[in-house]
Every structure is written in C-alpha cells, then in structure tokens.
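One such given next:

>
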Amino acid sequence: MTLASRALAQLATWPDLSRTVPSCGLGRAVASAQGEIAHFHSERDVDLRLTDRAVRHFAKDLRGSGAIRIVPGSQWVTIRLDAASDVDLLLTLVSVALQARQTWPDPVGRPVFGCNDQRGTGFVRAVPGWI
C-alpha cells in the first residue's frame, strides 16, 4: 500500500469527510460538507485546500517543510508524501483545513480556483488511475 493510499484510507474513516471525485477530474479526493479538502493526484502528491487566511497564517511554518509547496495566490498547498511522517503531517493539516473553514472562512462568493495540479505547479503531474 502506498503512502497516499494509506492516507486516503485513513481520511475516508473521518466522520466529516467522504471520498469524492476531484473537481479537476484527476486522481481521488475527500470532501467535507463545505467542499473539497484534498486531491490525491499521484502515489506521492496531495493538494490540500486551506483558506487564504490559513495559508497566510501558517506560511512560515509550511515553507519550513521540504514536503510542502506553497503556490502564491492559491488556496491549495501541495504535500509530497515520501515518508510516514509526511502522512502524519498531511493528516494534521487536513484537521487544520477543516478547522480553518470554520474559523477563517473564505469570503462568500469568492471563487475557488483549481488545485495546484491544474496550475501545473505541483511536484509532479497527475497520474490517471494511480489508485
């Protein structure tokens, strides 16, 4: 089982998350009642949707991790899963993302732009059918 498969299986057991088809159409995703949270694009790359304010608030800490890529202007961060500790980081950040949507929601009516993979700015391009 790949790290991404393991992370997706764990997230699918969370009561406020469910598996879904990602809006970008590539890979697998999980969503809450407020919308998509994470897109699993390959065996190693996951795009996670945080609010703008959460990305700004945690930017210094997120940039300190070699496993995370921040794309300026994006509500999504890309996480590279190379080790079990990266899965733990992803699970923690999903919890942060869920809380951020309640604490620091994006302004009503603000469009949600596509995930980082759609911008071509993830670590690698998506691999259709990888899971």
